[in-house]
Design brief:
The protein is mainly α. The chain contains five helices and no strands. α1 runs antiparallel to α2. The mean pLDDT is 95.
Length: 124
């Protein structure tokens, strides 16, 4: 039963997301403008997916992105970047973890001189 529900949820996600984007743009474009509406929609959606992925894929992240005694991924409500930042701070990232941290550091230029994206994403 769980497998069926999981597959159904995965199959419905993309078409429902597409429909939702159309509805959000239609409803809020006149108030906020087209580009601002899309930017806010995708930004909040990305955070939601990030939190979901941190919890849902915690076993994989703990195996691949941190050393044995590092801060564990998978805390409910926490982003992957926050968990990466805690491992960055503690010096417990694996090589793959460091690669992701440096990639995010390059992409999120706002934090280049402030410790990088992941350090600034930590929930204290």
């Amino acid at each position: 039963m769980g497998v069926f529900l999981y597959l159904l949820a995965v199959l419905l996600f993309l078409p429902l997301t597409t429909l939702n984007i159309v509805i959000v743009v239609w409803k809020y474009t006149r108030v906020k403008g087209f580009l601002k509406t899309l930017d806010q929609y995708f930004f909040t959606g990305a955070i939601g997916l990030d939190i979901f992925a941190n919890y849902e894929f915690r076993t994989m992240w703990n195996l691949l992105l941190r050393k044995k005694n590092g801060y564990e991924f998978g805390a409910k409500g926490e982003t992957i970047s926050s968990a990466l930042g805690k491992n960055q701070r503690d010096g417990t990232l694996s090589s793959i973890g460091w690669l992701i941290v440096y990639t995010l550091w390059i992409i999120d230029y706002r934090y280049w001189k402030k410790g990088g994206h992941c350090i600034n994403s930590m929930f204290f």
